Automatic annotation (TrEMBL), chain A:
PROSITE patterns: ABC_TRANSPORTER_1, ABC_TRANSPORTER_2. GO terms for molecular function: ATP binding. Residues 2-242 form the ABC transporter domain. Keywords: ATP-binding, Cell membrane, Membrane, Nucleotide-binding, Transport. It is a peripheral membrane protein. This is Amino acid ABC transporter ATP-binding protein. It is found in: Cell membrane.
Length: 272, 217
């Protein structure tokens, strides 16, 4: 479904992604993990061309692009690739001036030029699917963080993309509502959706991933099945990263302690 | 008192016939100009950016009164003659456009980048995103400064008197000249302006309320 060959991305002349090769099969769930600043978001954003790769080959479904340094992509090619993907953002980025159902309809009405009545019916079905049928006419500010994120998922699903991209969909959420978003993602996997997910939720990654990619300093350091990568990492950097996470898991205070030791909690956040 | 009442009708009539249409038309045209200028400033086409900056620079750097005189008294010497009312509309529109271009540019830029990205990821084009996502949100941000500019415009229309438009102030001058009741007549016309701007302020409050429907109260 997705194929990347030798994708490079520079910001200015700083290389951020280096020689990325990636293959995502239809119906597969790929999870990208790695330290902060390693280029996970950038890689994900290269997939729907929110960032233009500096060079390399990119194919999604049956549309492909070959880029050399200095090339600019034609808008029509960007649109073709984009229509194969849907994206869910960490900060949801719902349109605040539209109700939940209007948010979900927007792509259908504006991009696909569907009639409002039809689009609304389709949007309501999607909201129902993410468990928010009763919130259709609420504005985003009237919804909880988890509900907002589920509307975000419904919006990304509306144009029936071949691939869904998630950039830390639960990082901005309170721990007790993370589950409702993860459940929706689990359901999508059951239905055979192809997904690429960036997340810091390692337990969830392990549970949902068919394939794990460990990215560090813009390089795919290690990849494989969750069991391979989590239980038998072969690379030193992967081991270090996972050890640090383990250490943190022991150290992460419970909710109650976190309130008592707020500064310590911040330190933990940086390691993420 | 009699003079007050006698002059009230002609003044109001001048207001309704000239000041009000002058304000409404100039403001509408000015807003379109302001939006186009803001978009030009934000575009990546260099000449457009320069043109927009030049326009704002000229209009904001010179008195409105002088601009009106150039349009009405100056242009005919270049062979371009424009009626007083049209000249006033041109002058006021240019002014509204220049002053509010910056307001609109700031409003557009204040919309978070994530809104663009979310819309782009849906496959919307730049103009679709502007129209459907960015401008509706920017409109809300710019209502307070735009209403201030609108109320200023109501008062500024009195300047049209200087280029022979018979709006309220011109009428007031005429009546004062005949009756010698300067204090009375000018206070009366001030009251009428006050009346118009108060109504508009109330309207502003309603518009703001409308836009607040989707924000946390
Ligand atoms: N628009 C940009 N311009 C310049 N540098 C950028 C830009 N976006 C990202 N970077 C840099 O690229 C690197 C990778 O950023 P990226 O956001 O992809 O990391 P990440 O793995 O998603 O990190 P995190 O886990 O903190 O989200 C960082 O060093 C970042 O500073
Ligand atoms: Mg990131």
């Amino acid at each position: 479904m997705i194929r990347l060959k030798d994708i490079n991305k520079n910001f200015g002349n700083v290389p951020i992604l280096k020689h990325i090769d990636l293959r995502v099969n239809k119906g597969e769930t790929v999870v990208i993990i790695g330290p902060s600043g390693s280029g996970k978001s950038t890689l994900l954003r290269c997939l729907n061309l929110l960032e233009q790769p500096t060079s390399g080959y990119l194919r999604i479904a049956d549309d492909s692009l070959q880029l050399k340094e200095g090339d600019s992509i034609k808008q029509a090619d960007v649109m073709k690739i984009r229509l194969h993907t849907g994206m869910v953002f960490q900060a949801h980025h719902l349109f605040p001036h539209m109700t939940a159902v209007q948010n979900v309809m927007e792509g259908l009405v504006t991009v696909r030029r569907q009639a409002k009545v039809e689009a609304r019916a389709a949007a309501l079905r999607l909201l129902k699917k993410v468990g928010l049928a009763d919130k259709a006419d609420s504005y985003p500010f009237q919804l909880s963080g988890g509900q907002q994120q589920r509307v975000g998922i419904a919006r990304a699903l509306a144009l029936e993309p071949n691939v869904l991209l998630f950039d830390e969909p639960t990082s901005a959420l309170d721990p007790e509502i993370v589950g409702e978003v993860l459940n929706v993602m689990g359901d999508l996997k059951q239905e055979g959706m192809t997904m690429v997910i960036v997340t810091h939720e390692m337990q969830f990654a392990r549970l949902i991933a068919d394939h794990i990619i460990f990215l560090d300093q813009g390089v795919v350091v290690e990849e494989g099945s969750p069991d391979q990568v989590f239980d038998a990492p072969t690379q030193k950097r992967t081991k270090q990263f996972l050890q640090r996470l383990d250490w943190m898991r022991e150290r992460i205070p419970t909710g109650h302690e976190a309130e008592l030791f707020a500064p310590q909690n911040e330190e933990v956040g940086i390691v993420h | 008192m009699e003079i007050f009442l006698d002059s009230l009708w002609p003044l109001l009539k001048a207001g309704v016939l000239f000041a009000v249409p002058l304000t409404l038309i100039s403001f509408a045209v000015g807003l379109v100009l302001a939006l186009l200028t803001a978009l030009a400033r934000l575009s990546s086409i260099k000449p457009l950016v320069w043109l927009a900056r030049f326009y704002v620079w000229i209009i904001r750097g010179t008195p409105l009164l002088v601009q009106l005189f150039i349009i009405f008294y100056g242009l005919p010497s270049l062979g371009i003659t424009i009626g007083a009312f049209s000249a006033a509309i041109i002058g006021f529109s240019l002014s509204v456009g220049a002053y509010n271009a910056e307001v609109m540019r700031a409003a557009i830029q204040s919309i978070p980048k994530g809104q663009w990205e979310a819309a782009e990821s849906l496959g919307m084009t730049r103009s679709q995103i502007l129209r459907r996502i960015i401008l509706p949100q920017a409109a809300r941000v710019s209502v307070p400064p735009l209403s201030n500019s609108f109320i200023s415009l109501v008062k500024d229309t009195s300047l049209a008197a200087t280029i022979t438009v018979t709006e309220m102030f011109q009428r007031a001058q005429q009546i004062a000249a005949v009756t010698y009741e300067h204090m009375l007549i000018y206070c009366e016309v001030a009251l009428i302006y006050l009346f118009f701007s108060t109504i508009l302020s109330a309207l502003q409050a309603r518009v703001e309320k409308y836009f607040e429907r989707y924000t946390v109260r």
